[in-house]
Amino acid sequence: xxxxxxxxxxxxxxxxxxxxxxxxxxxxxxxxxxxxxxxxxxxxxxxxxxxxxxxxxxxxxxxxxxxxxxxxxxxxxxxxxxxxxxxxxxxxxxxxxxxxxxxxxxxxxxxxxxxxxxxxxx
Length: 122
Description:
By secondary structure, the chain is of the alpha+beta class. Helix content is about 20%, strand content about 35%. It is built from two helices and six strands; from the N terminus they run H-E-E-H-E-E-E-E. A hairpin with a 6-residue loop joins strand 4 and strand 5 (about 95-105).
């Protein structure tokens, strides 16, 4: 489940005074947290760029390159927030080489950590 879903589930268990976590001396609860987000590094080469460089936003450029390389998982898409550095074509001024850090969303869920919760006492 996502971090938000894990927080809601933990709140439900705490509110229901679930016997598995109700003792203030332990044990604590633990819920696995999953995400469909990842970030990839994309190197733009002159072989990737159309004649005169890319036209469009950096998100569109990243999507075009990742799609042409087959590197987008099913259901995955480029999210807002692509950053990086690129060189502009000497004639058109459009991007044609560089490196981008590309956030992706909507892919396969991956385990990213745990949400631990419960009661505590000294």
